[in-house]
Amino acid sequence: MSLLEVTDLSIAYGGIQAVRGISLSVGKGELVSLIGANGAGKSSTLAALGGLLQPAGGSLRYDGEDLLALPAHARVSRGLALVPEGRGIFPRLTVLENLQMGAYSRRDKALIAADLARMLEMFPRLQERRAQLAGTLSGGEQQMVAIARALMSRPRLLLLDEPSMGLAPILVEQIFGIIAQIVSEGVALLLVEQNARKALEIASRAYVMESGRISLSGPAAELAADPRVRAAYLGE
Q1: Which of 209, 183, 198 minimizes the C-alpha distance to 234?
Q2: In 38-122, which ranges are E strands?
Q3: Closest-CA residue to 24 (of 190, 197, 159, 188)
Q4: For residues 150, 154, 156 and 160, what is the CA-based torsion angle, rounded to 10 degrees?
Q5: pTM (2 decimals)?
Q6: How far is it between the farthest Cα atoms of the chain?
């Protein structure tokens, strides 16, 4: 059963059509990757799902509910969280304050405290840096803050935009390990990622986006073996 259903989604900036009638789905507890070149419309798609962009057309349904009727903050309280490209942390707040901001829509104080302790256990580096201003962290540490902050909202679906961008290879491995752990705990995840090889390795299904349209879709392992994907995105 699908948790997210996107049907005929279109997004326009002025006279430019960034997304041209795409349809995709994410099942409960499923990891789905969306790959494609820069400018294909991937980030615009996630921004529309998170409520940061108003689509020009199409429908978005999350757990049977019309997402277009909900503002961004209401989507978070329903269990849909976005980690945007560029991380979007609060640089002048401490690591701990950033994580607390992730739970702003919650009122269950005891569980918030438990989740905060769990995030610091999941991300030991953040435990070490918890009193440090987030803007002074390394890129990899800031990405950990962004993911942990989103998890503090207790999402059922996490939208993750370019988590490995600009990171050293060892940190990329750490981030993808964290992604796998998140999904193993039952959180569904829609991943936009330039590292197509890693994105296809970790996903159950994937979509290839080109010039605002879905050009290919299917099981991730099949797409990874497709000569067109290998030539265009895997450098083979």
Answers
A1: 198
A2: 57-62, 65-66, 80-83
A3: 190
A4: 10
A5: 0.94
A6: 52
Query: Backbone phi, then psi, for 189, in 5-degree steps?
Result: -145, 130
pLDDT 10s digits, 131-170? 999 999 999 999 999 999 999 999 999 999 999 988 888 8
Residue 183 banded pLDDT, cuts 50, 70, 90 = very high
Phi, psi of 171 (to 5 degrees): -75, -35
Say if CB 134 and CB 98 are below 8 A apart.
yes
Question: Among candidates 162, 121, 115, which has minimal Cα distance to 143?
Answer: 162
User: Using an 8 Å Cβ cutoff, are 150 and 82 in contact?
Assistant: yes
Q: 116 is written with which tokens?
A: 């905060």
Q: What's the whole-number mean pLDDT along residues 50-69?
A: 95
pLDDT per residue as tens digits for the range 73-103 = 999 999 999 998 887 899 999 999 999 999 9
Say how far apart CA 207 and CA 216 lie, in whole Å.
6
Give the integer Cα–Cα distance in Å for 85 and 41.
13
3-state secondary structure of 1: coil
Sheet strand arrangement including 213-219: 80-83, 157-161, 188-192, 31-35, 205-210, 213-219
Q: What is the rounded end-to-end Cα distance, in angstroms, of the chain?
A: 35
